[in-house]
Amino acid sequence: MEKKLFCYYGTWATYRPGNGKFGVENIDPFLCTHIIYSFLGISQDGSLKILDEYLDLEENWGRGNIKKFVNLKEVNPELKVFVAVGGWNEGSAGFSSVARDSSKRQKFANQVLQFCLDYGLDGFDVDWEYPAQRDGDFSIDKANFVLLLKELHNKLSPKGILLTIAVAAAESSASISYDIPSISRYVDFILLMTYDLHGPWDDNVGLNAPLYENDVDQTFAEKQLNVNASVHFWVQSGAPKKKLIMGMPLYGRTFTLRDATQTNIGSSHIGPGIAGVYTGEPGFLGYNEICEKKMSDHWLRIWETRQQAPYIVSGKNWISYDDMESITLKSQFVKDLELAGAMVWSIETDDFHGICGKGKYPLLNVINSIVRDGITATTVSTTNSPAITNSPAITNSPTITSAPSTSTPESNETACDADGALIAKSEWLDKDEFLDIIYWSRQVLGIILGIIWGTFYLKGFIALALFAAINCGVVYVYCINFQQIDEESYGGAWELVKEGFMTSFAGFLVTWIIFYTGLHFDSLEAKDY
């Protein structure tokens, strides 16, 4: 049976700066057998919710990222595309509320099914972190999670849609949250989060994802905080190996040592370590950030022989991470134990640009070479990436056309077409980036309007017209400075955008007419007859 490689894709990476910015166009669709779009949310009434409407959807000039993601199947028809619901930030309360109520479970399952059919998805991943923990219900979540998965299975399975779950790996957490034999019955694969086993939340420094235990591990619970113990716990608890997918982190955990001379595993620390220039989170660094740091700064790499993983130290900075050597050992571990495959969190923190000299996606390539017997990275370019069709309608089996732009930007300018639409002509301003500018400009102007409104207590037609004028007029104000015409820029992919701009332009004229009319009527209201 072919081994699987599940890759989580954290969509927020599109907002990262510089070489950390990662979008669908950066995904090599041949490096993973299954890619999971992360995340959707869950409401306490049983509704599936979009967490970033602007990024995920096409409506209201959105970027349509989910549809772009599904279109990767046009490049690799063998690829399985999933969406995930949940994640750490989504918490536990929403899941707990839905899982305890049969009508909410049914509503949620129906919405999940329809969403998968509408977008042509191959699977759905449930990432409840965690049943019977955090802000969930400690007494009933464990049993209710089984009922929720059963409801989803009964809806999705007849349509051939796969169901997976991401789960806490270590026994100390998993034994609280999961009825392992029962949940195994209703899912196609179980994705073990065999990472974050140690981090800045601990009293002492430890490895993020050690393969084996360490001599400093004294208690039973401490001895379970490693990959080997976690995997064997799940197998011994009734999870079939043919369904177990072992997670590997493409990131590290950072600490600030209390004493720069005390660097061994178990040394004291005072809190999270340095944040990354791309990810910006204290205590966390993507592998791409770590390998770049190693190239530019002086770091001492130490290999922890017992636990089969490295860490690096510079002064009081201490970083646990996985590199090509430790990923090789983990990949062989998956193969030796005859598990169903591997999973990575997450694809956008590998060295996807190949900046560190080991080629693009060095860690994913290592996993593929062992787990999947030699699959390697392909050359990904925008000419291979499927374009979004001009028709935003979604069917159960979406038809996708490919109409990549072949024109080369000639200058750092923007231009208006004959209809007043703004067209990007520069290397620094592509379609998505321009829509970002429009979106955030409208938000900023909305705040400014609120200040004006509150300060001068505008009322009547003036206030209404001023709001509409600012909301509709952003594009026009930006566009009137340019009168060049470039019908070739981005081709037909801009048609939908141009239509929206025409609407804004018309709205701009209409609202300013109302504005001046409002001045007249408000002046009449002020007269004392």
From TrEMBL:
GO biological process, one term: polysaccharide catabolic process
Domain GH18: 3-374
Annotated Gene3D superfamilies: 3.10.50.10, Glycosidases (3.20.20.80)
InterPro entries in alphabetical order: Chitinase_II/V-like_cat, Chitinase_insertion_sf, EMC6-like, GH, Glyco_hydro18_cat, Glyco_hydro_18_chit_AS, Glycosyl_Hydrlase_18
CDD domains linked to this entry: GH18_chitolectin_chitotriosidase
Membrane spanning stretches: 437-456, 462-480, 501-519
Keywords: Carbohydrate metabolism, Chitin degradation, Chitin-binding, Disulfide bond, Endoplasmic reticulum, Glycosidase, Hydrolase, Membrane, Polysaccharide degradation, Signal, Transmembrane, Transmembrane helix
GO cellular component terms attached to this protein's record: endoplasmic reticulum membrane; extracellular region
Family: Belongs to the glycosyl hydrolase 18 family. Chitinase class II subfamily.
Protein name: chitinase
Gene name for this UniProt entry: Cht2_0
